Amino acid sequence: MSAERPRAALRTLAVIAALPLLLTACGYGSKSTDDGKQTAAAAGAKKLSADEVKIGYFPNLTHATALVGVQEGLFQKELGGTTIKAATFNAGPSEIEALDSGSIDIGWIGPSPAINGYTKSNGKNLRIVGGSASGGVKLVVNPKKIKSLKDVKGKKIATPQLGNTQDVAFLNWIADQGWKVDAQSGKGDVSVVRTDNKITPDAYASGSIDGAWVPEPTASKLVSEGGKVLLDESSLWPDKKFVITNIIVRQDFLKQHSDVVEAVLRGSVKTNAWINANPDKAKASANAALEKLSGKALPADVIDPAWKSITFLDDPLASTLNTEAEHAVKAGLLEKPDLKGIYDLALLNKVLKAEGKSEVDDAGLGAE
């Protein structure tokens, strides 16, 4: 036992050292793009306590609150004379780095990189201040090779990256089936093949993988190529809800410019309300934003089913973030983190109350 403990400690240290690479969001690759996009404030509009706010998000449907809010001017309306400077990122680590360096002030991001960023800074840099989206993750398989959940055993299934949000979820599901897989190598009763979402459809078409546990729109891209949805991850969660995107902010920016953060949160709440009241218009707006950012809009057979599987909400679903952290610990990819203080939902609840909406809970993980 005494000899095993040092080895276990070394493995844990190795994993923690690699976390900036491991705990990524559901984007494509790891590069960031400064869009140089600065929205024009209304002439004569009153500035808040900052001249501008730098926000970051992914060119991804699970970040549609940001895509639509910027596209439709809903954030700028709340910010008045304070301008928005937007930057897009393709994975969690680069966005966390931008937040750490002050290159952005507020960002939309997945749960794993939020946990990683918070623990890496010993709880001193970011706070989760709001929710944005739930769902949008599916296990899609080749129906000729896999006809039922039990058939997944012995097959090659892709996840976006070692230790990312979907990878952790799949490893946890595998464990729940009573199957064994080495988390680091991906070898075992199921072969977990870490594959960039951009090339997963090609890997599926070539037959090098038998399926994938992936976020939208990758899941719907696979379906458009003949894949079958075997499992929607939402079915595994209470009320079919789990966090896929949160809103984070630099703690120093929150302290110095709480009025700006409140305005962004108000814009987010109003954007989500508009998305849910106008789903077709919102879908078109998000796709138009994606086309501007990537040069290519998503086809109808991809965006239509993908959009339907994502729920846009203001609640950060704090209890599910804590559960996702527990899953990462269970898989051996994370040392048990202290997440106390990761949430500060005071401004969000202030906005929700003003809008006549129910306040949300931090699951005991709020800042004191």
Strand order of the largest sheet: 1-3-2-4-11-5-12
Strand content: 15-25%
Overall pLDDT: 89
Low-pLDDT segments, ≥5 res:
1-32
User: Count of helical segments?
Assistant: 14
The topology string of helices and strands comes to: HEEHHEHEHEEEHEHEHEEHHHHEHH
By secondary-structure content and strand pairing, the structural class works out as: alpha/beta
Number of strands: 12
Q: What is the makeup of the main sheet?
A: 7 strands, mixed
- Amino- and carboxy-terminal Cα gap: 39 Å
> What global shape is seen?
globular
Q: What is Rg?
A: 20 Å
Helix fraction, binned, reads 40-55%
Features:
14 helices, disordered N terminus, alpha/beta, 368 residues, globular, five-stranded mixed sheet, seven-stranded mixed sheet, 12 strands
Could you explain the architecture of this structure?
The chain is of the alpha/beta class. The protein is 41% helix and 19% strand. It contains 14 helices and twelve strands. It has helices spanning 4-22, 64-71, 74-79, 92-101, 111-120, 165-176, 200-206, 218-224, 251-256, 258-277, 279-294, 300-308, 318-330, 346-354, and strands at residues 32-39, 52-57, 83-89, 106-109, 126-135, 137-141, 156-159, 191-194, 211-215, 228-232, 243-250, 310-312. α2 packs across α11 (279-294), α8 packs across α12 and α10 (258-277) crosses α11. The two termini are 39 Å apart. 53% of the residues are buried.
